[in-house]
Design a protein that fits this description.
Rossmann fold; seven-stranded parallel sheet; globular
Amino acid sequence: MDTVEGARVVVTGGGGGIGAALARSFAAGGARVVVNDLDAAKATAVAAEIGGIAVPGDAAATVGDARDALGGRVDIYCANAGVGTGGDPMTDDEAWQTAWDVNVMAHVRAARALLPEWLERGEGRFISTVSAAGLLTMLGAAPYSVTKHGALAFAEWLSLTYRHRGLRVHAICPQGVRTDMLATTGEAGRLMLQPNAIEPGAVADALFKAMAEDRFLVLPHPEAGRFAQARAADPDRWLATMNHYQRRLESREGATE
């Protein structure tokens, strides 16, 4: 599908932030959009604004309902819903499991529901909102960083496995974006993300450019790509640099106690 006009699109986590920006952009391009969010009021508000359809509830569990709402077909699925779980190895198993379920398994379950039709048709597009935490890492947020790496790995696997069968996959990896989630990142977010934070609409613009160019990796912050190259070229130097920021973070946190 070379254009979004007439496409049938599902956006999870579409009640605000990046998800709402994606929904607005697809609708502006002429797509029919299902807005999914756990918060029914937010999903309904965005859907009403763009002339879309609200299908609230758990993202992975509502693929069938979203397909029915779109007349029996999904062309583009935006696996955007995520949870920004902070913490470290001592964080309780429940928080780790929630991060795993939302940030990784929701993508797996959605793909499980969508792939048979897409592969039979020879066409489909899966868009994963990963975050630069999946490409790099995020200080103070082990569950988030680890599961976002998993989300990126799954998106890569989908692309390399089904590309020749018509599936197009895009992994969106922004750094700081001015959303409610950014506001919950605390001192780590203020140190690492807020200085170069962008608006959600800029993320949607970057995605549409990547779709036009048929690129897998979507980098609303181009510097994230340079950081990834540095990480791959010299892992020890990159780790030492990140540890420097970790020590700065600990110093800042200590100063506020």
